[in-house]
Amino acid sequence: MATKAALLEHLRTVPMFAGCSKRELQAIQKAGDQITMTADTLIVDQGQMGREAFILLDGEVTVRRGGRKVVSLGPGAVVGELSLLDHGPRTASVICDTDCTLFVLDQRHFEKVLEQHPQIAMKLLGTLAGRIRDLDRRSFG
Questions:
Q1: What is the per-residue pLDDT for 132?
Q2: Which of 19, 70, 113, 121 is deepest in the core (most CB within 10 A)?
Q3: Do the domain assignments include residue 138?
Q4: What percent of the chain has pLDDT over 70?
Q5: What are the beta bridge partners of residue 62?
Q6: Which domain holds residue 104?
Q7: 3-class DSSP state for residue 93?
Q8: pTM summary value
Q9: What is the rounded distance in angstroms from the CA atom of residue 56 to the CA atom of residue 136?
Q10: Rounded to whole angstroms, how far apart are CA atoms 109 and 95?
Q11: CATH number of the domain within which 107 lies
């Protein structure tokens, strides 16, 4: 398990939380939990409804969509962030390739953080807008 200081540093490097102050990151840190999962464990299942996001602190995972490998991810990666925000179905499956340590942030606790720190929501919107612009550029030039 990561120490509080190490976890705070992990959160600082997550693009989704880019621009968050130390105080805001500490609020996010308090809202989640660290868990461990063994190799070959399914973290999220495509099509299933979700309410949480997972930040990979240690280990490697594979993202699959429609049964096909999309990408392998390592520490600092976030999976499930769309379901954290909209409680919609998972867009891909994620499986642990190795034993993994994850930071889990559920929707209910995250919404409380956003209520107490509304400026985080504006930062998230900026990050998501940047991702949409990047996808648009890659798709349409």
A1: 86
A2: 113
A3: no
A4: 100
A5: 72, 95
A6: 10-133
A7: strand
A8: 0.90
A9: 27
A10: 24
A11: 2.60.120.10
Q: What is the 3-state secondary structure (H, E, C) of 109-126?
A: HHHHHHHHCHHHHHHHHH
Residue 2 maps to a domain? no
- The CA distance from 14 to 70, in Å, is 20
Cα gap 19→78, rounded to integer Å: 16
Span 81-119, pLDDT tens digits: 888 888 889 999 999 999 999 999 999 999 999 999 999
What's the pLDDT score for residue 1? 74
79: exposed, middle or buried (Cβ count in 10 Å: 0-12, 13-18, 19+): buried
Residue 37 pLDDT grade (very low, low, confident, very high; cuts 50, 70, 90): very high
CA distances (Å), origin 39, targets 36, 44, 137: 10, 14, 36
User: Does a structural domain hold residue 1?
Assistant: no
Alpha-carbon distances, residue 21 vs 25, 27, 41, 115, 118 (angstroms): 6, 10, 33, 16, 12
Query: Does 38 fall in a domain?
Result: yes
Compute the mean pLDDT over every residue in the chain, rounded to the nearest whole number.
93
- With 0-12 / 13-18 / 19 or more C-beta atoms within 10 angstroms meaning exposed / middle / buried, residue 75 is middle
Give the total number of structural domains in the chain.
Answer: 1
